[in-house]
Amino acid sequence: MTELPLALYIHIPWCLKKCPYCDFNSHQKNAELPHEAYVDALCEDLEQDLSYVQQRKIESIFFGGGTPSLLSSKALSRLMQQLRSSLDFASDIEVSLECNPGTAEYSDFDALLNAGVNRLSFGAQSFDDLQLQQLGRVHSAAETHIAVNKAKAAGFDNFNIDLMHSLPGQRPDDALRDIENALALEPTHLSWYQLTIEPNTAFHKQAPVLPSDDVSTEIYERGLSLLEHSGFSQYEISAYASPGHQARHNLNYWQFGDYLALGAGAHGKITDFKTGKILRYQKTRTPEDYLNKRPSRSSKITSVDEAELALEFMMNALRLNAGVPSAFFEQRCMLDFSKIAVKIESLRQRGLLVEDKQRLQCSELGRRWLNTVLSEFMTH
To answer: Comparing C-alpha atoms, which of 74, 121, 77, 73 is closest to residue 96?
Structure first.
């Protein structure tokens, strides 16, 4: 079963400022970052997790955060050298790094490219300076243009732009203007998603007034039309790509592949081929505890209960417009297809899944009623 793909996620937990909508594990930078000490910790962490590799190549690496572009290019280069010496990289490996446009002065894009990063993801969020202020961002629209153009001048030709829509007081024309500004920078990929208010965020404590459902629907429908007209295909709920530029790392998540996790608060998923168990694990959340191994860097390892596996698989696979091959269920859940066969057939008869027996894929109706589809796999 070692054909199951394997990726690597690396978490850089620091930001210049915590955004009021953010529920990720990010911590405000209050002093000079411990660049070298953190890389030392990541390398030690990797040594502990090498048994999870099980003779597989690493298909993709994703540096997320926080703000990974705050990590010095020298530290990143050293980390990449260690990863290459410890792991077997696929010849066409995708290596992505998130970049906050407000930290472009920290980024040596030439050095990033030389280190092996070949894809960037810019957290633009909006091209309206007033919206950026409301969102607590540390950059302006102009700085996004500057950062992207610096990266392109260094030789980056594969990059994503993150955009949010249905922002406070946003009208459909405003949202489309954001898309147009993003497209003008010639990205290969766009992540375009609706602002949601999450627990344990500043916005949850004091929520802004967001557009009505009708306005959000108009924004989505008009934005989707503009993106498709511009040559971007929607392949996942909030992901749009020009031909040949789907995010391979994210595809691995949605197709229920395996991924290693390094860094404070990082989460991983591994298939243990000897026992047939699916393991989820996470790393110690705070940077200080992670650096100092208090009490250790791995805070929790659990085996996914068989009753939960079908739901987890479907929650990921059915996010994709094209779904996944039906065979993936047995290959990636280590379960017999008969466990879901009756439910799948019922959903097909109701028109919520496509009739193709070789694929697990929502119909257009099923995508509209995705929560109803997923509820079929919930344990009661």
So the answer is: 121
